What does this fold into?
Amino acid sequence: MALGKDYATQECSIARALEIVGERWTLLVVRDALYGVRRYNDFLVHLGIPRAVLAARLQTLTAEGILEKRRYQESPPRDEYVLTERGIALWPTLRALGAWGRDHFVGGRLRYFRHAACGTEIGPYGECALCGTVVPVSDVVMEPGPGLDPDPADPVSRALLKPKRLLEPLETEQA
Amino acid sequence: MALGKDYATQECSIARALEIVGERWTLLVVRDALYGVRRYNDFLVHLGIPRAVLAARLQTLTAEGILEKRRYQESPPRDEYVLTERGIALWPTLRALGAWGRDHFVGGRLRYFRHAACGTEIGPYGECALCGTVVPVSDVVMEPGPGLDPDPADPVSRALLKPKRLLEPLETEQA
DNA sequence: ACGTTAGGTTCAGTGACCGAACCGACCGTG
DNA sequence: CACGGTCGGTTCGGTCACTGAACCTAACGT
It folds into this structure.
């Protein structure tokens, strides 16, 4: 989406936000990053995104300070993309968007998000009803729901079947 | 964005939601509808969107049950587009997205959103800290902030300078 | 009769996205 | 050393969506 020249005339923080994350695939990349995906190839197979588009999105997100590119081994040189504070701050938006999609367009529950401390499901505003607090991202545990039918050919989908905290790096076993 | 064939393979309510509202301009149309814009021409001048795209978006949003097309006068026949429950349910998403954009990419406050009952500014999760409740959309009052520099040539921007409740129809005075 | 407004549709041009191929650096193996 | 495989890209032609301008219809007002 990000054209800049059009939305720039909009005096609105929503329009500004959409200039950054409104392009196709961008929010899905951020979602995967929240789920713990960090490596180029994992994004690629899990999203089914064209390689060129993924490279462009990772570059844009890095330039905007939403992801950080980080060398995690030297030989062979490999980088991973990790969410920054600014990227993590998109969690309320993604949670709200997901809740809307779930309530209005999905039959059945695909995933549950629970408060790690007590197991209570996260409420519509990101809160834990039991503890009465808003749950920080790193204290959210994601686990699959009954409606989820993962692609068995995709190691990332398989790795996401195991309950895990958000942001925690994904461990993909090899096929 | 909405291609359907691609995102359909994604087992994720976020991806489903983005199929519907992820295309360019779509969320801005919904935002304007929340602000009280209802007429084709008001969307057109306020968004600066190409006419063909606006027509396409209004049709899609109507087909998805997010807007409702309603005849409001017979001669000449004129229709307005009003948010349905499903469309109003996007408010938490837009609020979260706007808050993110404001905190990370905008210097200064463009608009304030307050609880109509007490005047307290709406918190980051859509709540009124004073009343301790989540504020329903129709009880939110929007007013301009110090950073807002509206386009004086646009009657819709001018009409939005007056504090008003969300969803309340916009009254555009003629130039 | 004429201009204006609201709400579109049509159309050529452009830019973004798509899928497939290609590429280079670095492994591990024989 | 040659060979194959993996990872992380870049390149390229085709397609599709968005853009901006022009055009159209119906119903005013004067």
Observations:
- Residues 3, 6, 39-41, 44, 51-52, 54-55, 76-79 of chain B lie near DNA strand C (CB under 10 Å from a C1').
